[in-house]
Amino acid sequence: MNDKKWKASSSNFDSEVTIPKPAMSSLSLKRKHSIANSAYSEKSATLTPSRQVTRYQKIKSTFFYSYQNIVAIILAWQFPDVAKKGGYIRAEWTIKWGAVIIIFLISGLSLRTKILAKTVLRIRLHLMIQVINLMIIPGVVFGLVLLFFKMHMPLNSLLLVGLVIAASTPTTVSSNVVMTKNADGNEASALMNAAIGNVLGIFVSPALVSVFQGPLIDATPEDETATEAGGKVDFVSVLKQLGITVLVPLVVGQIIQWLFTERVAKIKVKCRLSDVSSIALLTLVWSVFSDAVASGSFGSVSPVDIVAVVIINAGLYISFSLLCWFLAAIPAPFPGPRWVQRLRYSRADTVAIMYCGATKTVAMGVPLINVLYQTGDPGTVGVLSTPLLLYHVEQLILGNIEVEILKKWVRRGQQDDIEKQQEEDGIVIPAPNVDVIEIESNQLYDSGTTQAPSSGLPSHLASSNIPPGPFAPSHHHH
After folding, report:
1. CA 51, CA 448: separation in Å to the nearest integer?
2. Most-buried pick from 55, 146, 183, 268 (CB within 10 A)?
3. What segment(s) does the record annotate as region Disordered (predicted)?
């Protein structure tokens, strides 16, 4: 954000917003009076409103990646010889190395170092997200798939193994941050855990797949062909390739972004690096499905199998989102003991935990599957990747549906916090001119401002530490 532009907007906001003289009790404040969207952390409160989003933008953000994946699959279906292994463009080098390096170099350039530094010491929050994402979810899905095998569910075994691999991947890099911000969640925490998760995923995800692989193959019904997904995982080789294609570009991008912050920001906009990253990811999907189509691997996958995976994915995402919400908010009709209050996270943090905990990344997952099964049948990778690609599309759709629900929940908690504090302190504040505040706020959003000044609040509230809401922890340093 341009600091000069922000200061000018802030002073303009201060001078033009008017508060009438008649005072009223805080208890008479109406719900429609919306204070700037708060993003509470465990130690402080910062005011960060999200700009107004048009209906077209919401639809675009929800379905854009879905359409992209469909286009990539159609290309693979019609022209499998172009991007298959050993094809015209030598995809095993140009895409499975080159495109992956580009994706994570751009990710490194996009991760904002200063924002990451602000949340790096929130160890308990980071630990909770990573334990849910890289331990609880893989363990639950692994157990569920074993149960399906024991029950002889009439589903393609490769797809079920693919479900476990999808669950073993880390959280996504960008979409969870965007959805967290749109839902008035703690964007900084989401950004930090996207970075942590993808670095940990380089080491944890191959280890999980290696541990799960043996029991899965043993449990596979004998008349199925899931043994194609067998074989020993060369852990050292996997770490070496993921380190070169993922970790090194990510670190290099961060170093460049840290040394040349302003220049990189301009280049990102001018060269539309986010679109370049999306195109690189699409070529990866195209290559994976080209291998599967060329080898005929989808011949054993029926429409019923795909529909079943879609339903399972939706159930898993909703269930894991609710699990994250329950563990973070610890819902109860009463405050509870002090130790319980300290374990609770604020509503803004809970939103970040929900999105980072339940989402999975294609950018890391597809390269991981490619590396793990590079010595096997190339078409196997396409079938194994299908559950992850479907989960990615579904988490975008369901996540964007959650945005409006969570945004109202966060704002309601903020208003309750303010009213509760006013009631406890016996504060009587002037009644704000709601229409004037809304007009000026809209002007600020339209001008490109992404943060509202604290002067939008009365001075005694703007400078005070407002305690978190009923689901938030009290102000203790963790």
Report:
1. 8
2. 183
3. 447-478
Question: Using an 8 Å Cβ cutoff, are 170 and 361 in contact?
Answer: yes
Query: Taking Cα atoms as reference points, which of 409, 401, 327, 412 lies closest to residue 179?
Result: 401
d(CA 404, CA 183) in angstroms, rounded, equals 6
* Two structure tokens written together for 35: 């204070």
- Quote the pTM value: 0.70
CATH architecture of residue range(s) 63-413: Up-down Bundle (1.20)
Q: What is the DSSP letter of 50?
A: P
The β-bridge partners of 38 are 47
- In this structure, what DSSP letter does residue 154 have? S
Please report which helix (H) or strand (E) contains residue 156, including its range: none
